[in-house]
Amino acid sequence: MVFNKVYIIKSPKLVSAVRRNHRTMSFEPLVTSTSKCVAGVSGPGLQLLRGKESQGQGLGHEVIAALRPTLLGEGLDQMNTTMVECLHQGVQELKSHDGVLDLYDWCSLVTTIASTDAVYGPMNPYKEDKARKSYWDIEHNLSSLMVGVAPWLLARKPWKGREYLTKAFLQYYQSGGHLESSQLANARWKTQNDAGATLEDIARLEVAMGLGILSNTVPTSFWVIFDIFSRPKLLEEIREEIWQNAVSINSEGLHTVDLADVQAKCPLLLAAYQETLRVRSNAAQFRVIFEDTMLDGSCLVKKGSILVMPAAVINRNESIWGSDADTFDPQHILATGGKQSKASGFMSFGAAPHMCAGRHFATGEILALLSMLILQFDISPVGGKWVEPPTNVKAVAASLSPPMGRTSVHITEEKELKGVEWHFALTPGRGRHGLVVG
Ligand code: HEM
């Protein structure tokens, strides 16, 4: 794509103006480009997906509109149930693991299985090692695939991954896997099928959906664990907060953690999670400008240009977050009083009308994982000192860049809790979180 100009929005005030003027701009051309370069959809299939403003049939937009309601209400409750069961199982297995683990690899495995089992049901293609490896080959080398030139030659590794995963999804649909899945997977398939998309193109687009489901949840879970466990005082405060407000013990010694209470009564935990998202997000929201648009009465953005809103700058705006805006401190979020009043200074979930549709699911997953780990385990780095790893900036879909190299840790069960039986309880209708959003 060629654009006249690139405008970079750095001020929260202009973010609000972009939100108000959303009708003259769209990020659909970038979605179409992802469908083409990442998923490999072409010809009539791509024309179906392309936005109406670009003379396509607008199916890409319809698919996102169809999935939004499935990530709330009953659809969200259903996915949360499977997700918590999978996380619980993955965390329990740590108890029999005696030795050193790479923290990122472990987070990646546990959250990939939990997220995708929740979305795709019993025939989840990501259960297979090779499918997961194929996905991460795509994700970690996305920038070369996005170039879109002879990917079988110039982006061979991610291209092979994509073709393998496409076949796995094709088989999934042919075997009726989507009929036993979540509302989310079913609605995506139905919307495309009703519009006349081929099964192969539906499978291709589902490979790209992995970027929404996994690319942010996996590195975010790693970084929140890193940020909390590397601060012993914060860790102790959060541990105490969860014990006091969300754990009950019955007469047989069963420890029940009420995840609705974790969400509603553990503000420090929720703040620490959002603070990691605030200081570590590199999300860059793009909008293509369709008509000359005046922002906030002072800034004219011209038709045919592209506008970028970088979270890394906006999330650290000192007029919103104070003079220590660059520093990790959950008090920044606690000071909002849960009123979302810093909204235009928090871009980690994007900006309306394209706000992240999966934020409640992702938040529920990461808070559940944190509760399980914080209550039951100590995590300490091999060598005794937490050292922040460098990040992989080639993983361009990840708004929190994944770490490069190993983060080797010991994960040990709290001695006095050995033998305790745990239950992580969900309450239907309580899957939405009071998050600061853009
Ligand atoms: C911590 C985890 C996550 C983070 C930080 C995150 C962040 C984001 C961001 C920054 C955007 C772009 C919004 C814009 O351009 O204005 C976005 C969009 C989106 N996300 Fe997420 N996301 C996460 C998890 C998820 C999950 C788990 C799902 C699905 C199950 C999901 C589904 C989507 C969808 C469908 C959109 C496009 C919305 C639209 O175009 O209207 N996300 N997300």
UniProtKB/TrEMBL annotation:
Keywords assigned by UniProt, alphabetized: Heme, Iron, Metal-binding, Oxidoreductase
Residues reported to bind heme: 356
GO biological process terms held by the UniProt record: mycotoxin biosynthetic process
Pfam families membership: p450
CDD domains found in the cross-reference section: CYP7_CYP8-like
GO molecular function: heme binding; iron ion binding; monooxygenase activity; oxidoreductase activity, acting on paired donors, with incorporation or reduction of molecular oxygen
Domain of life: Eukaryota
Cofactor: heme
Record flagged with keyword Membrane: no
Family (UniProt): Belongs to the cytochrome P450 family.
Protein name listed in UniProt: Cytochrome P450
Species for this entry: Penicillium malachiteum
Lineage of source species: Eukaryota, Fungi, Dikarya, Ascomycota, Pezizomycotina
